[in-house]
């Protein structure tokens, strides 16, 4: 059963569409990421699920029930806010117990639940502290415990790790994922951080300009991006624009403006203008002439413009026919390319992906 | 910090304290001095306090001032807090205009406001009296309350109230369990301002006071005009001590609307 259903939801602020005919289905128990740039609509969508934003059109369902007429406090959701929004005047125990307290649950039951949740987030013994007396990472875990306290049907996370520094963020990613799995709660989270989306999500919806660009498992989107935006927002991509000039042997030939040609296993009608994306790590860099020039391998030549050493890999910026191409080279051998050296870049045709511009 | 600049900033602090507190301290000391003409040497005496106890006019005026200031505090703080909440949490037509109208009243000279009020109250039949003084004080202190409580609400943001809603709290629960306790320091600070504005107010009270009744500042002013007696020092000393105790207490409690 779908835990959260979004169908044809639209929201306008004046003439600007914050959400433009958005549809998606989040499965039971799924960790679902909304990824996109700021202004992409992801936060508006999350707030629409929570009930802070009322869609102008479309329907949102939680556990199969339409929620448009259900106020926020009856939607049975748990939400973790970007700044955590812990109540500064209440203790940790009172913060976590707040949801049960407003439901008038017995004191003993609340205390027991608070104890369980603090154990879950590994902060037992902190009951009497005030949020201010805790570190950012601890506050974040308290906020998570509070969001889980009422056993909500869906957990909503707004930039859950955004306020933490890099090292803590990496630690918390694993912990968050672990807790989500243990609890088995359907989770929708918003992030602009592609790494966070990749590591946490079972599936990702990439949003841009109020629309969904692509929905899928992180790996599927990474390997087969459907749009240029999806390709460049999740990972890095080189784009080649050209005209389809024929098909044969299971590959499509694309002629680039500078006369070079590349091949893809994707299909497109002859004469069509297409955009092809190639990931920088799929490119193999080498001296010109060293490659076996088989017709089914892509080979283009270019001049090295810049080199950035990153320890385990080297990034080259290569000028291939007045077009900058980025190449990641694993730091495996002593082979290095100097500035202005002309090198050959090769890759398999199935790594050339035709995307919508 | 080097020695010269350290000495300079010490001097600066000393000058501030000197000009701020020396006149007050001199006045307080003189209230205990026997001489009516401030003659030294100092001779301790409570004569002016004894005279003050028999000065019904001054005591009556002080009572008027305290009652008006307290009632003003309750009314202005309540109305102002509700207004600030409304501005901070709701969208409605004309909100910007109304918010903008708050500010000019702060910069308008009290003399002008007082004159306008006197004319308006006379023309509208409200007339002069303690009731119109109270009306004037509420009108004066309301913008301060709205601005102070509003600043507190703005700095709090809405996310804690939103969090309460997602946790199942209804509007009433959210207000009493989250909003009210969080804005309490702002309300306390605003109430202090409302009290002080009313208690200090001279111009408007002077214009609106009917013959025979007055507030403390008005009474002190007319007493000075007739001829200064150290009774004024005595009542001033009492007020200064009382308000200092009050202020220090509140400042400790609320840090004037800042973070606790």
Automatic annotation (TrEMBL), chain A:
Pfam families: ABC_tran, TOBE_2. It catalyses: ATP + H2O + polyamine-[polyamine-binding protein]Side 1 = ADP + phosphate + polyamineSide 2 + [polyamine-binding protein]Side 1. InterPro entries: AAA+_ATPase, ABC_SmlMolc_Importer, ABC_transporter-like_ATP-bd, ABC_transporter-like_CS, Mo/tungstate-bd_C_term_dom, P-loop_NTPase, PotA-like, Transp-assoc_OB_typ2. Keywords: ATP-binding, Cell membrane, Membrane, Nucleotide-binding, Translocase, Transport. It is an enzyme of class 7 (translocase). GO terms for molecular function: ABC-type polyamine transporter activity; ATP binding; ATP hydrolysis activity. GO terms for cellular component: ATP-binding cassette (ABC) transporter complex. Residues 4-234 form the ABC transporter domain. The keyword Signal does not apply. PROSITE patterns: ABC_TRANSPORTER_1 (PS00211), ABC_TRANSPORTER_2 (PS50893). The keyword Ubl conjugation does not apply. It comes from the Bacteria. One of its GO terms (biological process) is putrescine transport. Its EC number is 7.6.2.11. PANTHER family: SPERMIDINE/PUTRESCINE IMPORT ATP-BINDING PROTEIN POTA, SPERMIDINE_PUTRESCINE IMPORT ATP-BINDING PROTEIN POTA. The complex is composed of two ATP-binding proteins (PotA), two transmembrane proteins (PotB and PotC) and a solute-binding protein (PotD). Part of the ABC transporter complex PotABCD involved in spermidine/putrescine import. Responsible for energy coupling to the transport system. Belongs to the ABC transporter superfamily. Spermidine/putrescine importer (TC 3.A.1.11.1) family. NCBIfam families: potA. This is Spermidine/putrescine import ATP-binding protein PotA. It comes from Kumtagia ephedrae. The lineage of its organism: Bacteria, Pseudomonadati, Pseudomonadota, Alphaproteobacteria, Hyphomicrobiales.
TrEMBL record, chain B:
GO terms for cellular component: plasma membrane. One of its GO terms (biological process) is transmembrane transport. The chain crosses the membrane at residues 12-32, 66-88, 100-123, 129-153, 174-197, 203-222, 234-253. It is found in: Cell membrane. The keyword Cell wall biogenesis/degradation does not apply. Keywords: Cell membrane, Membrane, Transmembrane, Transmembrane helix, Transport. Its main location: membrane. It comes from the Bacteria. It is a multi-pass membrane protein. Residues 62-250 form the ABC transmembrane type-1 domain. The keyword Nuclease does not apply. Belongs to the binding-protein-dependent transport system permease family. CysTW subfamily. This is Peptide ABC transporter permease. It comes from Kumtagia ephedrae.
């Amino acid at each position: 059963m779908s835990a959260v259903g979004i169908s044809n939801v639209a929201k306008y602020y004046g003439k600007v569409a914050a959400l433009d005919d958005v549809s998606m289905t989040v499965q039971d128990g799924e960790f679902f990421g909304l990824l996109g740039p700021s202004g992409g609509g992801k936060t508006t969508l999350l707030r629409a699920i929570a009930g802070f934003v009322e869609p102008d059109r479309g329907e949102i369902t939680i556990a199969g029930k339409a929620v448009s007429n259900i106020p926020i406090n009856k939607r049975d959701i748990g939400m973790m806010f970007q700044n955590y929004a812990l109540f500064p005047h209440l203790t940790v125990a009172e913060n976590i117990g707040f949801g049960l307290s407003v439901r008038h649950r017995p004191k003993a039951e609340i205390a027991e639940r608070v104890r369980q949740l603090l154990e879950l987030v590994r902060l037992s013994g902190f009951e009497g502290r005030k949020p201010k007396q805790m570190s950012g990472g601890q506050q974040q875990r308290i906020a998570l415990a509070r969001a889980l306290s009422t056993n909500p049907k869906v957990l909503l996370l707004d930039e859950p790790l955004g306020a933490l520094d890099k090292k803590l963020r990496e630690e918390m990613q694993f912990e968050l994922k672990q807790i989500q799995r243990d609890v088995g709660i359907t989770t929708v989270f918003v992030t602009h951080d592609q790494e966070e989306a990749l590591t946490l999500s079972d599936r990702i919806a990439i949003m841009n300009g109020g629309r969904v660009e692509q929905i899928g498992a992180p790996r599927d989107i990474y390997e087969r991006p459907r749009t240029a935006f999806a390709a460049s927002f999740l990972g890095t991509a080189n784009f080649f624009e050209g005209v389809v000039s024929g098909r044969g042997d299971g590959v499509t030939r694309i002629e680039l403006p500078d006369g070079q040609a590349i091949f893809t296993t994707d299909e497109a009608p002859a004469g069509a203008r297409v955009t092809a994306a190639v990931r920088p790590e799929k490119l193999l860099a080498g001296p010109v002439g060293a490659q076996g020039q088989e017709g089914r391998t892509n080979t283009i030549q270019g001049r090295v413009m810049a080199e950035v050493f990153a320890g385990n890999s080297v990034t080259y910026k290569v000028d291939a026919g007045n077009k900058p191409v980025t190449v990641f080279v694993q730091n495996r051998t002593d082979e290095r390319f100097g500035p202005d050296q002309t090198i050959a870049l090769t890759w398999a045709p199935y790594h050339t992906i035709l995307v919508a511009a | 910090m080097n020695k010269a600049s350290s000495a300079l900033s010490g001097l600066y602090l000393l000058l501030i304290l000197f000009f701020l507190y020396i006149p007050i301290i001199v006045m307080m000391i003189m209230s205990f001095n026997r001489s009516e003409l401030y003659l030294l040497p100092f001779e301790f005496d409570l004569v002016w306090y004894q005279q003050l106890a028999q000065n019904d006019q001054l005591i009556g005026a002080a009572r008027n001032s305290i009652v008006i200031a307290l009632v003003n505090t309750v009314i202005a703080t309540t109305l102002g807090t509700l207004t600030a909440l409304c501005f901070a949490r709701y969208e409605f037509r004309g909100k910007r205009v109304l918010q903008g109208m708050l500010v000019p009243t702060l910069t308008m000279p009290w003399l002008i406001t007082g004159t306008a009020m006197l004319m308006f109250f006379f023309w509208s039949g409200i007339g002069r009296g303690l009731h119109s003084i109270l009306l004037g004080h509420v009108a004066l202190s309301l913008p301060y309350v709205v601005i102070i409580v509003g600043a507190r609400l703005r700095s709090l943001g809405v996310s804690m109230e939103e969090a309460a809603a997602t946790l199942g709290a209804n509007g009433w629960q959210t207000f009493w369990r989250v909003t009210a306790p969080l804005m309490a320091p702002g309300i306390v600070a605003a109430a202090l301002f409302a009290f002080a504005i009313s208690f200090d107010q001279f111009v408007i009270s002077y214009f609106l006071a009917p013959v025979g009744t007055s507030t403390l500042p008005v009474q002190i002013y007319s007493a000075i005009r007739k001829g200064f007696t150290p009774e004024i020092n005595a009542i001033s000393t009492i007020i200064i001590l009382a308000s200092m105790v009050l202020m220090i207490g509140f400042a400790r409690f609320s840090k004037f609307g800042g973070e606790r």
